[in-house]
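Task 17 of the worksheet. Students: predict the tertiary structure of the chain below and write it out as structure tokens. Keep your answer in the requested format; marks are given for formatting as well as content.
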Amino acid sequence: MTNRLCLTNRRCSVIIAHILPEMNHSLIISKSQHGVRMNEWGPTLAVILGIVEGLTEFLPVSSTGHLILVGHALGFTGDVAANAEISIQLGAILAVIAFEREKIWRLLSGAWQEQKALRAASPNQPHAAWSDCAKASMRSHPNVWFLLGLGIAFLPAAILGLLAHGWIKSYLFTPQTVAATSILGGIIILIVEATKRTSHTMSLDQVSTAHAFWIGLAQCASLIPGMSRSGSTIIGGLLAGLDRKVATEYSFFLALPTIVAATVYETWKARGAFTDQDFLALGLGMLVSFLVAWAVIAAFLTYVQRHTLRVFAYYRIILGILVILVVR
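Model answer:
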């Protein structure tokens, strides 16, 4: 598995080194033999971005950063590009729902039963200290508290993103930003992986609201293109004491409210900029990202059980250096 990922990273570096020089010119890619311009939003470009999104959304390498780089390499920039690069992420999120459908169903059905039991028992509970009641509730209503934790983890990035969304989209959706944050994120991953840690949380149902809060704060870093939402939350989880696989899987669950909110908000705002044909192309891109992401999720969960994230850190640093060298 390690060899395959290393080979993939080397191939990606070669491909990126080949296409990124195009960024130095105001070159519009000529029509293909089918008459489709690669820098215009349509089915062909949607498929390309869908593949990129599916491959990178759940790896700690930043899907948004890669979409920005590929978009600039193909001459696909501007408001439509920024909207498409965010909206297309919904396909990858649907892949999480499909992959984790059994756990999600158990979580939601369990939480529903627990909240009914909680409401029925509350009037009959004897007076006790709030902390004691909370601890007892955490033990007897784990699904409710897990959902509460997801809400706590979701809020910091949601609030900050709502306040700074326009500024981030206007000034930080650039290859230069992606280059800098790719290198910085890679260095952070290497530092965290080199630090000796003891994992105290070995399963999802052990993730507390305190863990969720710190992971949510870490997710705020992912608002900057190139930092990686999955990378930020996984590293935040590791620093909070989660096992690597648990941190990775919690990152998948946290992606549900975070990216669904971002994509719905962005798609709604872009409704005037997209035509009916544009939305059809977006749907195609989402379908492609769904299929690719499903395969990546399964492979990545298997990988993190046996390996560190160092290979992704090296890839990020190499990518960042390449972009700095070729983008002027």
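Marker's comment: The first helix runs from residue 2 to 19. The two ends are 36 Å apart (CA to CA).
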